[in-house]
Design goal:
Elements (H helix, E strand, L loop, with lengths): L10 H4 L1 H19 L3 E5 L2 E5 L3
Antiparallel strand pairs: 1-2
């Protein structure tokens, strides 16, 4: 399987993936610190994860 890397011309769009990863990491940390479940939308379903 070969992978193709797309070159994004818009500098804002080029940083979206990294920003989403940072936001997800912060959400997991906040859920753990506050002992609240992490709500995730996956495969068309809303799922609740306890990560504390």
């Amino acid at each position: 399987m070969t992978t193709t890397k797309k070159i994004i011309q818009d500098p804002d769009l080029a940083r979206v993936e990294a920003a989403l990863q940072r936001a997800a990491q912060k959400a997991r940390k906040t859920a753990k610190d506050t002992r609240t479940p992490l709500i995730i939308y996956k495969n068309g379903k809303i799922m609740k994860y306890r990560i504390y």
